[in-house]
Amino acid sequence: MNIIDLRQTTVRQLEPLLLEEASHWRDELHWDYRSALDLIKRFLDAHALSGCVAVENNLAVGYSFYVLEDYKGLIGGLYVSSSQNQEAIGRRLLEEMLYSMRALPQMHRIEAQLMPFGGPVDAALRDQGFRLHTRQFMLLDLLKHHESVPTTNSGLRLDRWHDRYFEPCAKLIYLSYANHIDGDINDQYRSRHGALKFLKNIILLPGCGQFQPNASFVLRHPGSDDLVGAVLTSEVSAGVGHTTQICVQPGFQGHGLGRVLMLTAAEALRAQHFKELSLTVTADNHTAVHLYERLGFATIRSFTAGVWPR
Question: Coil, strand, or helix at residue 47?
Fold first, then answer.
């Protein structure tokens, strides 16, 4: 088996792997991964995507890629065909890719959130010095679980998303994730600038599906655009929504506002004839996990988030 630079391969060579990976997203997570793959293909065509390909008998059997963001590297994907020794090949791909990433002088942090479709990665990441966190992919049957939205009696206004909330929502995310475990996993949460970049990624780019403003809501004080809470929703396949962000400002947590936001988004999706709603949550965030379970969400997959600090 040989490991070659991703920029030396073509979309045609990787097409069988990409289709196999997309089938896992569709069958196991009810997620149409084609828009994300189209973006990957465009970068491959331009030979502008960094990463590695595992080649056996002139066939691509696994691939991985990463993107750079200032001082940070993001492992965007790793997939090994199920017909191969996934753990061994995945380890080789990670080792080669991380060797290249760490050689960059500005690299001070590497983040990874990898679905286990390409095989187990925990041991390989841990051996490379990553701190690991378990995350859960949860799914709600919107037709089976139908709960009325409670009133908050808080004096807050509940509004649908508007683009004027970009800056206030970035501030809300920054405040909500201060000293939070998710701020360790994704350091964009640690600053207003990073949170704004995160918001633009989930709202304007296709990686997290097609943003649904009619199923995205904010809680705010009357007469002010300062936000107390927000829930943002995307469509990831026909009839399936995904909660890309849910947060409530410290000081207002523990009063049922997160529940109100989630139920409001779910009701809006039902009105648009959606059948399912998914989300991801860090397993150690017990309060959030218990809320989603009470709402009827069930964990259908667990996956690993890893962080490497220099």
Answer: coil
